[in-house]
Amino acid sequence: MQHFANHSEENYLKTLYKLENKQIKKVNNIALAKDLGLNPATVLEMVRKMNEKKLVDVLPDKTIQLTEKGKKKALLIIRKHRLWEVFLVEKLHYKWNEVHDLAEQLEHIESDDLVKRLEAFLGSPSVDPHGDPIPDETGKVKKIKTQPLTDVALKKKVTIVTLANTSNDFLKYLDKSGLNLGDVIEISDIESFDKSLTVLHKKNYITLSNEAAKNMLVTSPQTPLQRRGAK
User: Fold this and answer.
1) Average of pLDDT values for 34-54?
2) Would you say residue 230 lies in a domain?
3) Which of 16, 19, 180, 222 has the most CB atoms less than 10 A away?
4) 107 belongs to a structural domain
5) How does pLDDT run across 166-183, given as a tens digit for each residue?
6) What sections of 22-149 are H helices per DSSP?
7) Which residues pair with 64 in a beta bridge?
8) Is residue 211, in this structure, part of any structural domain at all?
9) Model confidence band, residue 22 (pLDDT cutoffs 50, 70, 90)
């Protein structure tokens, strides 16, 4: 039973970190319950337990915040998740839209030695298959300044480095378009009617919806990036 309790706590911490990282101003019991798909009463009890363990603080206005201790633990869970995603894509040849649920299960294995060996085996990757940075063993994250493709000026070359949306449907959409992380593209046209974009990619022109473009995060072509592995 303790294993399942730890499993549940780790999911709470990871979800809180995700919500805070989205810069949602007020993460309360209702917002957390909605994201986890749980009853608010169930969430309230877990938050109480995490508060006792000094993993979260509950402010007078009911806002829930990770403490430094809680944030570090959340980042170490995320570290395991992203390393497992790299392993599944690069070594077992899963597609990048197939690995999230599997990594959700593998991230709860409690072995620091296994994580160290996994990282070494993979060659200490800096990002996961979706371009998200992998925290180091102390929980530190190296961030790269990016912007949505929709904010890029005409005729400017940029590199696709990560995604704001990693849903199964969006990843399949990118596969069909032929675009990968690490690819250099140039915006050749912006449609005034619906703000869709036409980009030049390896001598080919590709049309992207505004919704797709805003979920593609880019930076200058000079920024180094580890490409995702074989699909």
Assistant:
1) 94
2) no
3) 16
4) no
5) 999 999 999 999 999 999
6) 29-36, 40-52, 68-90, 100-106, 112-122
7) 58
8) yes
9) confident
Q: Where are the alpha helices (DSSP H) in the chain?
A: 2-21, 29-36, 40-52, 68-90, 100-106, 112-122, 168-177, 210-214
Residue 62 token pair: 């009911």
Residue 20 lies in a domain: yes
pTM, two decimal places: 0.85
**Are residues 128 and 82 in contact, defined by beta-carbon separation less than 8 angstroms?**
yes
CA–CA dist 203, 108 (Å, integer): 44
Q: Does position 227 have pLDDT exceeding 50, yes or no?
A: no
Half-sphere exposure (CA, 13 Å, Cβ side) for 214? 6
Question: 63, 27 in Cβ contact below 8 A?
Answer: yes
CATH number at residue 158: 2.30.30.90
Q: Cα–Cα distances in Å, from 54 out to 1, 36, 61, 73, 133? A: 22, 21, 18, 11, 26
pLDDT band per the 50, 70, 90 thresholds, residue 15: very high
In angstroms, the CA 4 to CA 92 distance is 27
Q: Which domain holds residue 193?
A: 147-219
